[in-house]
Amino acid sequence: MPTNAKPDVEALLKPLKIGRLTMANRFVMAPLTRCRANTDHVPTADMVKYYSDRASMGLILTEATQIQKGYSTFGFEAGIYGPEQIAGWRKVTDAVHAKGGLIYCQIHNGGRATVPCNVTEGLKVIAPSAIAIEGHDSPALFAVDGKKQHYPVPAALTKSEIAEYVQLYATAAHNAMAAGFDGVEVHGANGYLIDQFLKTSSNKRTDEYGGSIENRCRFLFEVVDAVVAAVGHERTALRISPLNSFNAQSDEDPEALTKYICRELNSRKLAFLDVMRGDFFSPARGADKWARETYEGVLFTGMGFEIEEAAQTVASGEAEAVVFGVKALANPDLVARAIAGAELNTPVVATFYTHDMVGYNDYPTLAAR
């Protein structure tokens, strides 16, 4: 740990073991959609720089990375389903490792949150139930044709299709290992496919995948267990967002849902559980507290943390590490700035999901001043 660190960040600078690996510090880079892959969903040279510039974070979690060819939740979203995508990500992981960093691939499918024009002709937007996202359209920046559009009513998955998706996650995890990743984070958050099974607002099934908490969590644990079988429990992690209403999500009892997931995970001994503590659109907070009461493993939390609050959270044992999103996006050298007590760059929100390099690799570091 640096001897010149400010006392109010020292807790974040201690090493942390996740699985068989050791993070150099407790700063975690959140999985952030940036829409900068090429049209074949292959990571680019600019993405190599973007991720490797942030290798001083204790762990990098990649942007949500598509498990299925022919689908793209976001325009210019990276995939992990074929040789080209694997080779592209290998350049990223090699660059991060060359700087001493660790990097996990977040594997996902958008389900009903997939922009319809992003789906290859002949394929269909799917979900646990035939319920469309209502209340907002998909942003134009998420569409490959650049047009704002309604989310369609998805096709409800059959049981045989559910089994196929479980295997897609396992294959994606295997591919991530081939690409040199240190592990995978299963994306069970923010209104995408797995979260759609978890939440009562989007899952109205009457079979063994719907109804009770146990049934709504069945797909999640089939995916987790398949990923563990593919890459090992020490390289597998999970992200959930029990309180987040993004993509028109809600649940009748998010506390019970959180605690059930945590109890079931305790026997699975994953590398870590990543719990988003609140909601993008309201002051609701507390999912991390529910998890801490129940989960016995390494717990990450995030959503709107200031650095000092994050350090206090780790020092008190409320979580083992804190996940930073916008701060990591706008500050490639976030750890160095925290140690120095330096001012942080201001993020340029308008460039978060654009497709050129403005607002991507042009945030200055302290060393560049």
UniProtKB/TrEMBL annotation:
**InterPro entries attached to this UniProt entry:** Aldolase_TIM, OxRdtase_FMN_N, Oye-like
The record's section on Pfam families has: Oxidored_FMN (PF00724)
Cellular component terms (Gene Ontology) = cytosol
Alphabetically, the GO molecular function entries are: FMN binding; oxidoreductase activity, acting on the CH-CH group of donors, NAD or NADP as acceptor
Instruction: Give the range the annotation lists for the signal sequence.
Output: none
Domain NADH:flavin oxidoreductase/NADH oxidase N-terminal spans what residues? 12-344
Keyword Oxidoreductase present in the record's keywords: the answer is yes
Q: Which superkingdom is the protein from?
A: Eukaryota
Family of the protein in this entry: Belongs to the NADH:flavin oxidoreductase/NADH oxidase family.
Protein name per its UniProtKB record: Putative NADH:flavin oxidoreductase/NADH oxidase
- What lineage is on file? Eukaryota, Discoba, Euglenozoa, Kinetoplastea, Metakinetoplastina
